[in-house]
Amino acid sequence: MQVSQSKINDDAIDLMINMGPQHPSTHGVFRLVIWVDGEKIQKVEPHIGYLHRGSEKICESESYNQIITLFDRLDYVGNLNNELAFSLAVEKLMDLEIPERAQYIRVILCELNRIASHMLFYGVYGLDAGATTPMLYGFRERERIQELFESVTGARLMHNYIRIGGIKEDVESDFKDKVHKLINDLKKSVDECDDLLSNNEMFLVRTKNIGIITADEAIDLGLSGPSLRASGVLEDIRVTDPYSIYDRFDFGIPVGSKGDCWDRYFVRVQEMRESIKIIEQALVDLPEGEIITPIKGMVRPPKGEVFVRTESPRGDLGVFVVSDGSDKPYRVKVRPPSFVNLQALELMLRDTYLADAVLVLGSIDIIMGEVDR
Amino acid sequence: MNFQEILKYFVYAGLIFTVLAGIAAYLTLMERKVLAWIQQRMGPKYVGFKGILQPLADGIKLIIKEDLLPSWSDRAVYWIAPVAVLVPALLMWVAIPITEGIVLDDSDLGLFYITAISVLTVMGLVMAGWGSANKWAVMGGLRAAGQLVSYEIPFIMSILAIAMLAQSLNLTEIVNQQKTFAFILKQPLAFVIFFIAGLAELGRIPFDIHHAESEVVGGPFVEYSGAHWAVFYLAEYMNTFTVAVLTTILFLGGWVWPEMPFEGRLHDFLSILLFMFKTVSVIYLIFWIRGTYPRLRIDQLMAFGWKLLVPLSFLNVVITSVVLFYGFSHFVLSAISIFLTAVLFYMISNRSKKYDSGETVNVVSASQLRDSQR
């Protein structure tokens, strides 16, 4: 793969500066070494690994249902999507039939989780740009969703709710009303958030035409999710390679055209609206019935290997599981979207200023827990 | 100079410091409350009645906090920097009147003195940046130098137009000239330029580039803690208050416009109240802007200053001088100024027009994509 990079003039470099690992806007423990000429970025070098916990290795010594708790902690903003990815992988290996009710509840919660994750992005991105108010608005909405999660799963963050074969326990009887109320609120507040930041003159000036990555470059680097779609590539695994029951819903896929920071930002705002549509349809169809396919004893998938890819809030989350027939996997490998998307940072930071580094990094929406695993 | 006179000056200095420190402390509370209101939260509410003692608690906390000295720092510069920022903030108040007669030195060069002193702030910021021996701090200090020096020009040029209109540099005299019409009606353009440049001088959002938390981690203040950090913020809020007061004096008619009813003491009291009301309104506007806007990038800030504000402020001075020289009616000045203000706002909105939104992101329906896949 040929990555064209702007020519670096070594004479022009007059300061090497460490952005991170303790910097307020690196979104976790991420270190970016930047060589600048005045305010202009000449060269960057990302350093990762500060949050490495060896999750993949730990997976090999845990039973399948225990691993779900580890997946919660990879992308700690889109937990349910991660749980779903692992469960789907094991279910595919075991050829399990998932009860309809469980499928729908999974989809509803995962889409809510996507909105929560994008709301966090929205707030933090505003803060990166220097606007303090969007953060409070974004977190208010995320709080509402988390309250619902707490009433359903018992936890606000590390839910451990999706089980291999279904879900942990059935939702309460007022779940439908609660979600209805929640999405009605969210509809209004997404518009509110949109009004507050998206078309703000200064925000436009700061984010438009910054950190551009073309469609070809994006595909070459393996970008996925909103970051890829912002460059104009129509690819959403929920549609192009459907998993769970996503092929039953009609929703929109926001696609950008320029691949700049603003496109990446706005694709996510639009995605929140589309997620709401999915939830609405799923609520109408939500059937009664079983919530989990009972499995006798420990989960012991047959010998073999499986790869499943899902659309997490950040992009293409792939899970590869090798089973040797025992109650513990032989190998688990995660293809985290943040890790791959982060590769594009160097390219996006061509011909930008130091202040843009923050906005470009923010627009990729990385979660270090997922990058370092 | 006898002993009594020296004592008098000490008392004055103490008085200015105490009063301004009090005002600055309560501005922090006001800012937090206003921001909280914008952001749908409560703000401080536990210390004292509805959080009224919060600034006191903050102050005590900051004073008893350990003052850290980075090991590579340039000690003398590092410790002098906060003072170098605070002293100009206080010195400006020598010439600023609150109402007729309440002023330390009703100098005929008042306005000149204030503009001269206000430039000194930048030195303290650069010193802080340099002394901290921190790359982010140096970066912030240099940003501050560039920003403050460039915005000094439109700041002073807009004041100059007012001075020409009032035919005086004495602030009390300038206020008294506004008995029939406040200068904002004659010079709206100068007001807009003054306010924007004032925001930039203060380093408040959207111009808080030199101490941007998310970019340069607090800029020149990054290594400071405890009381020295507090001194910087004291100075910043004092300057906010100063700019608001100057806006009131120069453009909003100070304590004379509109004329308050009644006679004697009651009249004076109402005048001061009017003055304070205007000042607080301007401060409120500054906080409101902080709650609404993101920040600009340094090159955009410079382009905005040098390509738009500086030429317009010079043009304003030229127009004012022509109108005054030929003795045209001030309504002509008003009309031209309003027209130019409209041009300024048009140009600002046009700059972002070229980034017209919405079009770059389209929503493709899933069924369409599914069909195309088959």
* Rg calc of chain A: 21 Å
Main sheet attributes: strand count, strand direction, barrel closure of chain B? none
* Helix/sheet category of chain B: mainly alpha
| Mean pLDDT score of chain B | 86
* Poorly predicted runs of 5 or more residues of chain A: 1-6
Distance between the termini of chain A: 26 Å
Structural class of chain A: alpha+beta
**Which architecture name of chain A does CATH use?**
Orthogonal Bundle
Tell me the radius of gyration of chain B: 23 Å
Oligomer: heterodimer
Q: Helicity of chain A, in percent? A: 40-55%
Total beta-strand segments of chain A:
9
Work out the helicity level of chain B: 55-70%
> What amount of the residues of chain B lies in strands?
under 5%
The overall pLDDT of chain A, averaged over residues, is 86
Number of helices of chain B: 15
CATH topology of chain A: Cytochrome-c3 Hydrogenase, chain B
Portion in strands of chain A: 5-15%
Alpha plus pi helix count of chain A: 15
Distance between the terminal alpha carbons of chain B, to the nearest Å? 97 Å
Features:
heterodimer; A: 373 residues; alpha+beta; Cytochrome-c3 Hydrogenase, chain B; 3-stranded antiparallel sheet; 9 strands; 14% strand; B: 374 residues; mainly alpha; 15 helices
Molecular structure report:
The complex is a heterodimer of chains A (373) and B (374). In chain A, 48% of the residues lie in helices and 14% in strands. With 373 residues, chain A is an alpha+beta fold. Chain A has one domain (55-372): Cytochrome-c3 Hydrogenase, chain B, CATH 1.10.645. In chain A, helix 4 (100-129) runs antiparallel to helix 5. Chain B has 374 residues and is an all-alpha fold. Helices cover 69% and strands 1% of the residues of chain B. Chain B has 15 helices and one strand. Chain B has helices at 3-38, 54-64, 75-91, 110-118, 121-131, 135-166, 171-176, 183-186, 188-202, 213-216, 226-250, 264-292, 298-325, 330-353, 366-373, and one strand at 362-365. In chain B, helix 2 (54-64) packs across helix 11 (226-250). The longest helix of chain B is centred in the N-terminal third of the chain and has 36 residues, at 3-38. Chain B is globular. Chain B starts with a helix and ends with a helix. The mean pLDDT of chain B is 86. Chains A and B meet through strand 1, helix 4, helix 5, helix 7 and helix 10 of A and helix 6, helix 10, helix 12, helix 13 and helix 14 of B. Strand 6 (252-255) of chain A pairs antiparallel with strand 1 (362-365) of chain B, so a sheet runs across the interface.
